[in-house]
Amino acid sequence: MGTTPASLGALCNCTVLGQTDSTGRFLLDRAQFVGKPIHRVDMRLQKRISLGGKRNIDGMVEVFNIFNHVNYGSYTTTFVNAANYGTPSFNAATAYQPRILQLGFHIGF
Fold this sequence. Notes:
Layout: H1 5-12, E1 18-20, E2 26-28, E3 43-52, E4 55-64, E5 74-75, E6 88-89, E7 100-108
Antiparallel strand pairs: 1-2, 3-4, 4-7, 5-6
């Protein structure tokens, strides 16, 4: 007996959509798993100080993900360990990182 949506759903305690092809292999439907949306609020404060003439210096403070909301960019979508199917996993991309503070300056002349 081949794999069925019911047998996979029982493994992960979730609803699985898909179909069985002519060879008996089970194929998951595309885009059946939709993760949580990204919630980010970024802020930048900047102060320009004139140094006379055309010279100036800008001081900047930037805060990314100011409310430190947890954002997941990757989810476990394999049935190797079905108990973890659909659970968030680490993503190193900047968009999914916790709060980040950045200081900087710019000199114009």
